[in-house]
Amino acid sequence: MITINRTIAQKYATALFTVFEEQFTSEAIDQLLLLQAFLHKNKSFFAYLSIPSISEKIKQAAVEKITTHFRIPFLTNPILLLLKHKRISLLPLVINQSIKTYQKKHQFSLFTIKSSHTLQEAEKQRIINFIQKDLGQ
Fold it and tell me: Which of 17, 98, 104, 130 is the most buried (most CB within 10 A)?
């Protein structure tokens, strides 16, 4: 079942990225990461959207409010499509796969730098400069 959901989510993500490629900017990716964290923290969001007695108009308004808040309005219709097809639970997977598609296309990966102590701004800047120099940017 998990493999089937991942396959379906990958198809939605590929379609989403293909149609809205121009809207997938680094800022949009940052907002998608924030949305992903929000959805992970607020799992009841899916439950509310799945309640049949709530009108489609109210559900649409909720989706529009979320996508406006996270400054990703291009996701409104794809989310409503998932809702209509009763696949709203796939949204986190679709977002994750969309981010991976963006990263693959732009040839970059996210990573975390850990330190035994809190880094000062100057230390952070030296790390950024080192990485940029090493990558030739």
Answer: 98
